[in-house]
Amino acid sequence: MIDPSEIHIIYGEDPLPMTMALLSAIGLERELRPDMLIGVKPNLVLASPASSGATTHPEIVEGIIRYLQAHGFQRLLILEGSWVGASTREAFRVCGYEKLSRQYGVPLLDLKGDPPEPRQAGGMSIPVCRTALSVDYLINVPVLKAHCQTELTCALKNLKGCLPDSEKRHFHAMGLHKPIAHLATVLKPALNLVDAIAGDLTFEEGGNPVPMDRIFAGKDAVLVDAYAASLLGYAPADIAYIPMEIGRA
Q: Quick count: other Cβ atoms within 10 Å of Cβ 15?
């Protein structure tokens, strides 16, 4: 089993073999059963290629698919809901995920059409897309990049793509930090695999990618985000939702 107190890192410039080597090093297959439905949740906030620094490299998701299929796991699903006003279907196309779906026979799910189910956390009711809650093993594949409101967007904030658009707006109206911390208590990825190949370190919608040439993985999204913050020169306390989660632990 993968130790939740550890972060595993691989360095390089070729995401596909890097991903497969990292998953082999952590022994992902030992966490899984053949009958599991495995969901892969990238960051496709808008229809912009990964080279912009905004979205998850499709080669990383391809590496996940190839690794899992090589080990006999066939019940795979790519799920995402792009930002309010953006088309998830267009993002799937532009970002290379339609091609992945056809090549490997892995369905794509636009969470904008997925019925929400309410979950209680921190005194608030959070509607979360049903499929994100119901997959047996959720692999969260965020991009390490900056954000105009939270300074950092990585593992925890990427889960916001599993909300209906109305709740995404609500999160922003509440200032993001508290609702992100609350969401983390009701939607917990089994594994976080972070695309730190070349995220935009100034703006979440990309345009100024900065090569970082690494992918890192961990089970604990809070630990992963604390490490991600350090890579951008922040202490965990500088990202307000991180100490909220640490205090809850």
A: 23
Whether 224 shows a pLDDT value over 90: the answer reads: yes
The closest of 236, 128, 147, 127 to 200, measured between CA atoms, is 147
Half-sphere exposure of 233 (CA within 13 A, CB side): 3
Residue type, 149: Q
Report pLDDT digits (tens) over 133-153: 999 999 999 999 976 555 688
Strands 38-42 and 76-80, bridge-based pairing: parallel
**Per-residue confidence (pLDDT) for residue 74, from 0 to 100:** 97
The tens digit of pLDDT for each residue in 46-58 reads: 999 999 999 999 9
Residues 6+ apart with CB under 8 A from 38: 32, 68, 73, 75, 76, 77, 135, 136, 137, 138, 139
Contact 200, 52 (CB under 8 A): yes
